[in-house]
Amino acid sequence: MRSWTFVALICSTTRRKVCLRRQYVQRVLGLDPWDIHYRTKLDYHLGSLAQSREMHYITCWHLYRSETLAMWEGYGHDGVAVISQYKLLKAALSGLTDETHLGLIQYGASHLTNRFNAMEFITSKQLKYKPECEVRAMLTCSNPLDGGNRHIDLNNIPHPRPLAMNPRHSWVPECKRRRIVLKELVQRVVISPWADAGNVDEIELWNRLKGFSAPGHSELRGGMTMSLEDYRKHMSIRKPPPEPERVVTESELNHFYEELITLTPERARFLYRTRWEKCRLECVSLPSTLDLQYLDVTLKALKDIEKRR
């Protein structure tokens, strides 16, 4: 049984579709949409699920049947597919100290039980994703300081996601790295049918330097294969524009400041260090405007707290 992966990062499961989890929570808990408290109850449980998902990290693999342009377009149009076997991936996971899981994703909602199970949700996807034939490898790293209420705002109102003013502990960043022996896991590397000559040279050089066998070309590569642009046009695929960066309003910052100055200096310093550590771990990009706003207000509040002592 061969598995391909087009994406080789171990990523947090926080970015998931809203529709299926909302249906799942509503069904399992028997929530009535006509209940006046329906939205509050739903957001409370969605927020709890979101925090639970943060401690699970996954790599997504494709259970190989045959090559398709759809999979290349969605996951590796300018890169490679890494080929391994299910048993090799399982062996790599068994060598880690973390709690690990490995298995096929289930599609649809008919298999869901009537119990509130975060793991069951994480291993389920909507039917429209069934062609992906996804195998999911997962490791769990619990947040040692998470009280489970980071989705509740200063007015005690629950939200479906943890709030930006309550960053998670640095032990659960967006991605985690684990050491494995790549030569024992990777059997072959296949180059995208749309890779240009420069990318092909770079991939071949990397394989030689790492001691891997020469990469192979996709069986779909050839003069009869339409270009990436033509394929996207033919399939009416339009990439969504990037989401605008969120900025906190002045009233939200003032409210946050008023709450901070009631805390002890030790607690305010902890909140500052936690957000700063979040920015440090996300070193692939500059800190967001939102992070800078909260850091600035926290530092101002901390100075005012110490002045009053």
Topology:
Blueprint (H helix, E strand, L loop, with lengths): L1 E4 L5 E2 L5 H12 L8 H17 L1 E8 L5 H7 L4 E6 H9 L4 E6 L1 E2 L10 H5 L1 E2 L8 E7 L41 H4 L2 E4 L5 H14 L5 E2 L10 H7 L15 H11 L4 H17 L7 H19 L2
Parallel strand pairs: 6-7, 9-10
Antiparallel strand pairs: 1-3, 1-4, 2-3, 3-8, 4-9, 5-8
Helix pairs in contact: 9-11, 10-11
Description:
The chain is an alpha+beta fold. The chain folds into two domains: 2-234, no CATH class; 250-307. Helix content is 39%, strand content 14%. It has eleven helices and ten strands. It has helices at 18-29, 38-54, 69-75, 86-94, 118-122, 182-185, 197-210, 228-234, 250-260, 265-281, 289-307, and strands at residues 2-5, 11-12, 56-63, 80-85, 99-104, 106-107, 124-125, 134-140, 188-191, 216-217. The strands form two sheets. Strands 1, 2, 3, 4, 5, 8, 9 and 10 form an eight-stranded mixed sheet that branches. A two-stranded parallel sheet has the order 6-7. Helix 9 (250-260) packs parallel to helix 11 (289-307) and helix 10 packs antiparallel against helix 11 (289-307). The protein is globular, with a radius of gyration of 23 Å. The termini are far apart.
Quick structural gist:
The chain has 309 residues and is of the alpha+beta class. It has helices spanning 18-29, 38-54, 69-75, 86-94, 118-122, 182-185, 197-210, 228-234, 250-260, 265-281, 289-307; strands at 2-5, 11-12, 56-63, 80-85, 99-104, 106-107, 124-125, 134-140, 188-191, 216-217.
